[in-house]
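FORM 7B: Structural annotation worksheet

SECTION A. Query
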Amino acid sequence: MFKALVIEKYEDGQQVGIKALKDAQLPDGDVTVRVVCSTLNYKDALAITGKGPLVRQFPMVPGIDLAGTIEASSSDTFKPGDAVLLNGWGVGEKHWGGLAEKARLDSRWLIPQPTAFTAQQAMAIGTAGYTAMLSVIALERHGVTPDRGDVLVTGANGGVGSYAIALLTSLGYQVVASTGRPQEAEYLRALGAQKIIDRQSLSEQGRPLAKERWAGAIDAVGSHTLANVLASTCYGGTVAACGLAQGMDLPASVAPFILRGVTLAGIDSVMRPYADRVEAWYRLGELLNPEQLEAITQTIALEDAIETAADLLAGNVRGRVVVKMPSES
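SECTION B. Predicted structure
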């Protein structure tokens, strides 16, 4: 038997709770993982609260991230005792995810846990830090170097934003943080933000083309915010788009693209190829230190995930949330 957070759907809505399950109830897969830690991401919060149509089938165990050790394997790649890591691949949406003491998975979705991190540290980073690293790599590959000027990070207090600031600062960039929580200014400066602006200046409908301000940007917000970021990006700059906290729409014009040669780089972390994942995690090991992880992270028990999911959607959670499994307490 093992404990899991389970989402079930009925005619009158969905129910979420902690349940004791049998190994025989686990879905198909060629590896079984004893989960040490998972995380609580924006996607997980949408699934748990029912505020977004993320879950494709029921019952579902949410959790798009997990770190743990192989308990059983028929894979040629991993053997029992191996420490592994998973981000994305539709886990927690189409296939049972990491908010449980056990998970049965396709071994092709896993990578070895980076030696630079413990399981808890890897989950402190999770999809948020991994996505931030992919976004930074996209800026680098499009020629956005520290000497080009300021780089903007929107949604700065969230998980992706927090890690984006820390990573960019570590690489020598001048970072501007956009936030709707000015009371968190000290936190953002501690991560390395040199300037802080109110998100309100970006979140409403703006002009097709505005004054050039950013050499590049990492946007986790979308909608009007992304449109305004593009309008203010300098000639030849790049914006990495990796989130949609404000909305999926993009009420922008083609002006930044055809008049300033701006690049909009889409960042997908869910279906990313194996080599990209390994590269991103290797870079994270180079650039992050344990003190930064502690500053960005809070740890909760599996039983607290439901309440914390609601807080996350309400904008009351800063940085990252690690969920520690009961068997690891």
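SECTION C. Observations
Residues 119-141 form the longest helix (23 residues). The chain has a mean pLDDT of 95.

SECTION D. Sign-off
Analyst initials: ____
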